[in-house]
Input
Amino acid sequence: MPALPPQPQWKWMTFPVYFAAALALFVGVYAGYLAAYLQFEEDNGLAGMVVFIISAIFLGFGFSRLTTRFLMSRQWIKPRPRRR
Output
């Protein structure tokens, strides 16, 4: 089996910072949403739901990146060559 090229190195000021911010945003919005629901026991409104969904999308992008790198490290998927 031919040796695969090494995975590209993470630039530590990009993805890890993005993922930490996305996770913190999601946890903060979720906690705030639950606290507001328990405090007022009524509908939080459209704005709260929109912010919650946007934070979940950001977190989903981060998890998709982690999952892709995990699958590449196990050689379950092969990296695609870069387009010219």
